[in-house]
Amino acid sequence: MLFYSFFKTLIGQQVTVELKNDLAITGILTSVDQFLNIKLDEIRAVDDAKYPHMMAVKNCFIRGSVVRYVQLPASAVDTALLQDAARREAQQPTTGGAH
Amino acid sequence: MSDSFFGFDTTLPPLNVDQSTGLRTGEQQDETEEEEVERKIKDFSLESGENFEDYEQNIDLDQLEEEADDLNDETFGNVGDIGQDFDFTESTAKIVDTIKKEEEIYVGRRESTMSDKGEEQSRRRPSYAALWGNDSDIIFNGKSNHSNEIVGAPSLSESPISPSIWGSFHAPSSRTEGGIIPTSFENSHHYTPPQTSPPPLGFGPPLHPSVRTPMSLEEIEAQLHRQAGVPEKRMLSLAEVEAALLSINGRPPPPQHLMYSNNETPFRDHENPNFLEQEAAYREQEAAYREQEAILFHKEKKRRDRQRKLVEMSRYNGLMTQSDKDFINRIQISQLVTDDPYADDFYYQVYTAIRSRQPQPSISTFSPQLGGSGFMGHERGRHRSRGSESGLLKMQQQVLRIVNDARRKPKLTQLSLEGALGKIALNSVRNPRQLLQVSSKSNDIHHVGPSNGSGSIHSQHQKIPSISSHGVIDHRKILKSIENVYTAVLALEELRRNQPPLPRPYADHERVAVERWNEDYVELAKTMWEELRVTEMSGCYPHPFISVLSVAKGKKVIPRVIRHCLPEQIFNLITVLVSNFETLDVCKGAIWGPQGNVSPAMLEEVELFMNTVVPPLLQFVAESPLRIVIGLFGLFIERNNIVWVARSKVGLAFLTMFLSRAEILKQGGGAMQGLPPPEELEMIQWQDLYNRLFSLLQNHFLSLYPPFMIGIDDMYVWQFLAAMAVGASTEQQHVLVTEVRERVLETVIQASRLSADKASHKIANVNLFLNALGLDASQLKV
């Protein structure tokens, strides 16, 4: 749940989502769910010359499983807190094997 | 004629109250109107020079007859006596059913029905009836029109009877008397504007008043003309009437106007060049209209599109009931819900708390559906309106139930069905399928057995700058203990967040809660302190605590640890640090050689140390009495090769810290913190220590600087020298100046070659030292 928790804090920030089909989309993160499905607004393909059909698309829903990377704004990430959150995640008794 | 008129009327289908009253007023109106008509005819005949005498006589005759009211009853009674010419009702009554059926069709194609005259007689009426009937309905329904507007009144009065008026009165008269009709028509145009102006008021659909009403007028007129055989030019007069009507209406419909101007302009262009200006005006207007139209069209199109989409979507309205939706919601929420948001949603919770500084809600859910942020707390709920609050409350209760359910039956990770081969893994968001299966058993073997993974252990040792001569301190053990420190710190921080309120008197359970909390807290703080290994006397080298500080995350945890430490513990910590200072990685690894050989990674570590470890210790020292400062300072000089340590940035920072604190206390700065002024003995002890430090560093002051041209900010050195200079005697100051004179001059010369802001920084650095001596860089002559 750490990633879900993390992405929730990025709502409203501009992110670039790189998909497994090499399409990279920059947009404002509007929502994310526990499957890390992503909704973007005001989107723009990073390489619009290669994907002209994306010009007309203004917002999109991205299934979590097709995401390869998400480029984050560094200023919106609290790395120290992220470390703590990871520690807490690791500490949870059920996390050892199952959770 | 009027007889026939009235006789005609009596056989009409029974009128309702409104119509009959309208009829009566209509009669009166007619009388006055006819007088008016006579007068006008006279005027007209005078103007035009035509002789209307015959007609007048005719009318006079009519009127004479009409004046014989006493015979009216007989006349009305004996319809049959009057010639069949005027008995329209009887002929129409025969085909009344067919008329009614065909009424709609006739309305649709009125013009085409007028071809045949014989048929026209019978058909005209129904078409009129349809016309008038509709309109009179509208008028009667809109009673306010009738009462408020004078214009509306005549039309109201005329409408019920006008079929008979126009059908029977005018038609025969015009057939025989030719000229009357145009005159009366023009008159009517004059004195009864209702005939022309009412249409926009009550006739037809309000959207296109001027489109439909002129049509009906034209039609009526055409029929009249056909009957009367009036020359075509009267049509023009009606067109003029129409134009006047449009202008009276004030707001002609743009499309029609546009068409008009479109057709007109070319003609005018050719015929009359004087119209150029007008044409330009037309063009402008036209452009404006076009623009407006385009905008309107665009808007309309958009609206239609949206409407269409809505309609499309509304097909699926009501496909799911509310309980269906709730069920789906529950499925989603149950995946996200947690009884401990800090455990499962730690990052989000703390992040938002840090960013927004808002009070933490006691219960929270993960769900993005609940409120924008997925928060559902008492704090927020309170500010909401009642309706949404009750909704929230319901949701909250539901969430609580889900949480409790989840607690009662812990989630299974695997399911083995009877008779099934193998197990079914129940993967979920909380329990994702594991891609790596690392068994903890083999991990332990690797960890314990020294022979088993020695290679990797060695490589780890090369990474950390530790001398493992006495007793091997496993780097992993250090990392493990740092993680344990973190665990304890996180637990402590969570305890702090959940600190129970101060117990009220006589509330035993609250007192017990506070006591338990205190116990937990002390216990955890003790664990943390032990894991920090400050007091560990294992005899290994370096000290375990120093090893902890040699790791970046070990440095980072210090400020958070110190918040949970007692003052004695901090003193212990700083004592251990000071006495083992030269084994610190940021000290021994960050000493500048003549060539400047400190790695960038180490510089980062130094910065990290300066930003994390130094500030809380500086704060501690800044509140300490001189006794403690002397103790720590003495230990620092005693246990370390001070000339060597002072060449590191952190070493110099510690020296500066002690020196400046001692100076403040010497000058009575401790009084502000409630500390007693330092005793004589302490002052002497301090002076001894200072002199010792000075003698140790003498002839080495210049070596404290990082290499000159390497671009490292040497402010900390100037700060140290300033701290030294403040406490120095005159001879010592002289020694200081002599030793660093070269550096001062170099810096000032360098500054003169740099840009303004860089130069001022350099000069400011130098001035730190020079001002402590009572000098200034501006006094220097380069």
Give a verbal description of the structure.
- Chain B: It is found in: Cytoplasm, P-body; Nucleus.
- Chain B: Keywords: Cytoplasm, Isomerase, Nucleus, RNA-binding.
- Chain B: One of its GO terms (cellular component) is P-body.
- Chain B: Residues 4-262, 291-777 form the mRNA decay factor PAT1 domain.
- The complex is a heterodimer of chains A (99) and B (782).
- Chain A has helices at 2-8, 79-91; strands at residues 14-19, 24-32, 38-45, 59-62, 67-71.
- By secondary structure, chain A is an alpha+beta fold.
- In chain A, strands 4-3-2-1-5 form a 5-stranded antiparallel beta sheet.
- Chain A is elongated and about 50 Å long.
- In chain A, 20% of the residues are buried.
- The longest helix of chain B has 39 residues, at 276-314.
- Chain B is mainly alpha-helical and 782 residues long.
- Chain B has a two-stranded antiparallel ribbon with strand order 1-2.
- In chain B, strand 1 (414-415) and strand 2 form a beta hairpin.
SSE layout and pairing:
The complex is a heterodimer of chains A (99) and B (782).
Chain A: H1 2-8, E1 14-19, E2 24-32, E3 38-45, E4 59-62, E5 67-71, H2 79-91
Antiparallel strand pairs in A: 1-2, 1-5, 2-3, 3-4
Chain B: H1 2-10, H2 17-48, H3 53-67, H4 72-77, H5 88-94, H6 96-108, H7 117-141, H8 143-148, H9 152-177, H10 180-191, H11 193-196, H12 198-202, H13 209-228, H14 233-249, H15 254-271, H16 276-314, H17 322-336, H18 341-344, H19 346-356, H20 378-381, H21 386-408, E1 414-415, E2 424-425, H22 440-448, H23 454-463, H24 475-497, H25 508-532, H26 544-549, H27 552-562, H28 567-579, H29 585-588, H30 600-612, H31 614-621, H32 626-639, H33 642-645, H34 649-666, H35 680-697, H36 715-727, H37 730-753, H38 756-772
Antiparallel strand pairs in B: 1-2
Helix pairs in contact in B: 1-9, 2-9, 2-10, 6-7, 7-9, 13-14, 15-16, 24-25, 24-27, 27-30, 28-32, 32-34, 32-35, 34-36, 36-38, 37-38
